[in-house]
Specification:
By secondary structure, this protein is of the alpha/beta class. Helices cover about 40% and strands about 15% of the residues. The chain has an eight-stranded parallel beta sheet with strand order 1-2-3-4-5-6-7-8. Helix 2 links the parallel strand 2 and strand 3. The protein starts with a strand and ends with a helix. The chain binds nickel (II) ion.
């Protein structure tokens, strides 16, 4: 059975069939899902999903896209919600210089990234990090906070991966690994030990081949497991088994 460590089932892309889709997860081989908060004003949607479905867990935090909308109340809310039993991580947090090019925006993102990492450290929760075109700043900040965590949708070189792996962090691997042109990521997956990889969808985005471009869901994760298995010369069952154990250990969701 598979654990999806990063999903957004509160997204409006699921409004038409969310209930039916989530009820089909177990039969599709999906045992647990972490629904990850991203936007200011969106926390309650994740809390509702956690309360309604026993197999859904939560991560609470604000994506760098929304860093400029954060206030002290937002940070207080993150801390309060992090105390919930099924809230297993602080995320998704980080830096995005692809969509935000101004130095002033980078300063705000870095400040809010650190503030949320402080909460993760104080509450003893792992973090889930989003980082795009901000490799060096992300690495420097994460070095200050070396407790457990996942670098979500890892998109940098093998050399950067090596730095995170040395810190004992996990790399979140999703649909991109199935794309023909994802040479860098395929190299990273071959190089990284299976004991430091976890599966994720980032659904509704990042659907793997053969469903690339369509709405993604956790039901597509067997394609991701298969692609990792081929790159590593092992079976998909082994990938599914070990990545599940990795996620259970990091997120504290054994049972
Ligand atoms: Ni995400």
């Amino acid at each position: 059975m598979i654990i999806d460590t990063h999903a957004h089932y509160d997204d409006e892309a699921f409004d038409t069939d969310r209930e039916a889709l989530l009820m089909s997860m177990y039969d599709g081989g999906i045992e647990k899902i972490v629904n990850v908060c991203a936007s200011v004003g969106g926390f309650q949607d994740t809390v509702d999903l956690m309360e309604k479905y026993p197999f859904i867990y939560g991560a609470v935090g604000i994506h760098p896209d929304d860093a400029d909308k954060m206030k002290q109340e937002t940070l207080d809310e993150i801390r309060r919600l992090s105390h919930m039993d099924k809230m297993v991580a602080i995320g998704e947090i980080g830096l995005d210089y692809y969509w935000h090019k101004e130095e002033e925006e980078h300063q705000i993102q870095k400040k809010m990234f650190r503030a949320q990492l402080d909460i993760a450290r104080e509450e003893k929760l792992p973090f889930m990090i989003h980082s795009r075109e901000a490799a060096e700043d992300t690495l420097n900040i994460v070095r200050e906070y070396m407790q457990g965590g996942i670098i979500h949708c890892f998109s940098y070189s093998r050399e950067i991966a090596a730095e995170y792996l040395k810190m004992g962090l996990y790399l979140g691997i999703g649909g991109v690994v199935t794309f023909k042109n994802a040479k860098k990521l395929k190299e990273t997956v071959q190089y990284a030990p299976l004991s430091q990889l976890v599966l994720e969808t980032d659904c509704p985005y990042m659907s793997p081949e053969p469903n690339r471009g369509k709405r993604n869901s956790s039901l597509n994760l067997p394609y991701v497991a298969q692609a990792i298995a081929e790159l590593k010369g092992i079976t998909a069952e082994e990938v599914i088994d070990v990545t599940r154990q990795n996620a259970e250990k990091l997120l504290g969701i054994h049972q």
